[in-house]
């Protein structure tokens, strides 16, 4: 697998190149937004490690550009900007994962491995898809096959969260914090109520059930058969 490293710190770029080579990965390195987008158009790499702070601007422009081009590569964003708002901004721009600096090489390699094993979700600048469930992020519309599913604003936030993390269990606490905020009573059953509504809307009329409950753990959206 070819990995493009977009990093203007030469020492860090060299470190990443050596570390990835030791694991059998082939790499190329660029240091600017312009060179990164030119490379992606020409080579169409499978994986991009992207720094936020580049010599000619914010790496978010690279991330958005890749998604606009609809090139199906995984993007792992690296940055010293690692506050919650910065991470959310990176993920909303189309990154598949966000790792703050400084970091351990072992964690970077683990994240690359995890991302490259997720084949059942498709990420673009404007859409998320899991199976036949498609979320248009511009129109804020959800479809299951040809069926348009009407959702409330909070239901949309929940389904977007699940579709950005296909196959990954999302705890009730994490969903509650993401959708309702930290001031909501953690003892409330509002997450379960909304999940029941979503299940009726996206699963009840379809043979393949996508939304699963993991008892004591939370909820997961995937295409595997119910356990």
Automatic annotation (TrEMBL):
For this protein's source organism, the top of the classification is: Bacteria, Pseudomonadati, Pseudomonadota, Gammaproteobacteria, Alteromonadales
State the DNA-binding region(s).
125-223
Single GO BP term: regulation of DNA-templated transcription
Q: Identify one Gene Ontology CC term for this UniProt entry.
A: protein-DNA complex
Q: Which residues carry this modification: 4-aspartylphosphate?
A: 51
- For this entry, the protein name equals DNA-binding response regulator
Keywords, comma-separated and alphabetical: DNA-binding, Phosphoprotein, Transcription, Transcription regulation, Two-component regulatory system
Under the heading PANTHER family, the entry gives:
REGULATOR OF RPOS (PTHR48111:SF22)
Q: What is the source species?
A: Aliidiomarina iranensis
One Gene Ontology MF term: phosphorelay response regulator activity
User: SUPFAM superfamilies of this UniProt entry?
Assistant: CheY-like (SSF52172)
Question: Which residue intervals define the domain OmpR/PhoB-type in the entry?
Answer: 125-223
Q: Which residues form the Response regulatory domain?
A: 2-116
Read off the InterPro entries from this record. Answer: CheY-like_superfamily, OmpR/PhoB-type_DNA-bd, Sig_transdc_resp-reg_receiver, WalR-like, WH-like_DNA-bd_sf
């Amino acid at each position: 697998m070819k990995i493009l490293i977009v990093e203007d710190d030469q020492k860090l770029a060299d470190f990443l190149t050596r570390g990835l080579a030791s694991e059998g990965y082939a790499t190329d390195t660029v240091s600017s937004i312009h060179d990164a987008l030119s490379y992606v158009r020409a080579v169409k790499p499978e994986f991009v490690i992207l720094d936020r702070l580049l010599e000619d601007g914010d790496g978010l422009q690279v991330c958005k550009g890749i998604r606009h081009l609809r090139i199906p590569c995984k993007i792992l964003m690296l940055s010293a900007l690692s506050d919650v708002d910065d991470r959310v901004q990176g993920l909303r721009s189309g990154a598949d994962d966000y790792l703050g600096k400084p970091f351990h090489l072992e964690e970077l390699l683990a994240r690359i491995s995890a991302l490259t094993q997720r084949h059942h979700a498709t990420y673009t600048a404007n859409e998320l898809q899991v199976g036949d469930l498609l979320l248009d992020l511009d129109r804020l519309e959800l479809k299951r096959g040809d069926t348009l599913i009407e959702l409330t604003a909070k239901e949309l936030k929940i389904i977007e969260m699940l579709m950005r993390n296909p196959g990954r269990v999302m705890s009730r606490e994490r969903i509650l914090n993401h959708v309702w905020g930290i001031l909501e009573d953690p003892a409330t059953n509002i997450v379960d109520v909304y999940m029941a509504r979503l299940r009726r809307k996206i699963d009840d009329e379809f043979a393949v059930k996508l939304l699963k409950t993991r008892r004591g753990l939370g909820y997961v959206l995937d295409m595997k058969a119910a356990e």
